[in-house]
Specification:
seven-stranded mixed sheet; alpha/beta; two-stranded antiparallel sheet; 8 helices
Length: about 300
């Protein structure tokens, strides 16, 4: 059941105005709902980002627990429009993708439609590694590579001072580029379909130490009010030309290895009969005909 989105009133007036304007875009396109899936490693700020988008503590966040134990969908309604945000547990455990957590998420999503995927990581992680590749591959195998057409990369902990005398813009650009290269490789898109061209990257700072502008909006070191910017990016991705992803039983079960190549079985049998069996039969008949007969025959 969707509750009234009262948290929107907790935002500064400028943020409220922008959010209502973006909701109006959905209404103009005759969209009555939006479902956002949030995924990533544990402890990167997925739940905090959900709370900041809604303007309320909708999902429990604890310093002693890095993730929600199971998927949670929070639904909020405003002026006839319903916003659904699905928070998920981290899909990494012990340095590897946790298949059990991934299966739990997939079962929770059964018969739901994903309009936007927020892939969350941290801006202050200075390098990518094989684990990042594993995560991208796992998401791709679970929901299909088309899920990235509805993807947004969200980098949290964005209120930072870049190392090595880099400017904020240069540091964030390098970090974004490194992650997008991983998405390109792990999502198995062709080179001409490079995800870097259409998967946006949004910077986020969920903590109370985030700076504010004159309108009391939370801003990043580059001066961008990040909550309206994130919601605007979500709106653009949700309304792009790509189809939303319906998570049905077929998608959850994945491709049936036993069904691969079944269409070729009749052709293989026909080939064996006409080119092998028939040939062997002819050789046998020829040998019988050439064999000398005994005197009594």
């Amino acid at each position: 059941m969707a509750r009234e989105w009262s948290g929107i009133q907790n935002f500064p007036l400028a943020t409220q105005t922008k959010l209502l304007e973006l909701l109006g875009e959905f209404k103009n396109k005759e969209r009555q709902s939006l479902t956002v899936l949030v995924m990533g490693k544990g402890g990167v700020g997925k739940s905090s980002t959900v709370n900041c988008i809604l303007g309320e503590r909708a999902v429990a966040v604890s310093a002693f627990q890095s993730d929600v134990p199971r998927p949670v969908m929070v639904s909020r309604e405003r002026s006839g429009f319903t916003l659904n945000i699905i928070d998920t547990p981290g899909i990494v455990e012990g340095g590897y993708v946790n298949d059990q957590a991934l299966q739990l998420i997939k079962r929770f999503l059964l018969n739901k439609t994903i309009d936007v995927l927020l892939y969350v990581d941290r801006l202050d992680s200075y390098r990518v590694d094989n684990l990042d590749m594993q995560i991208v591959k796992a998401i791709t195998e679970s929901f299909g590579k088309e899920i990235w057409h509805k993807g947004v990369v969200v980098l949290t902990h964005a209120q930072l001072t870049p190392p090595d005398c880099l400017s904020y813009e240069e540091f964030s650009a390098r970090r974004s580029e490194a992650l997008l290269k991983v998405l390109d490789s792990g999502s198995r898109f062709k080179r001409r379909e490079s995800l870097a061209h259409y998967v946006p990257v949004v910077l986020v700072e969920n903590s109370s130490r985030c700076n504010k502008n004159d309108n009391e909006e939370k801003i990043l070191p580059n001066g961008i009010a990040w909550i309206p910017n994130l919601v605007e990016t979500i709106t653009k991705v949700a309304t792009n030309e790509s189809k939303s992803i319906l998570v049905d039983q077929k998608l959850i079960d994945g491709p049936d290895a036993n069904a691969r190549g079944k269409a070729f079985i009749p052709l293989i049998l026909a080939f064996q009969y006409f080119f092998i069996v028939k040939g062997v039969q002819k050789w046998i008949k020829d040998d019988i005909a050439k064999e000398p007969k005994s005197s009594w025959e």
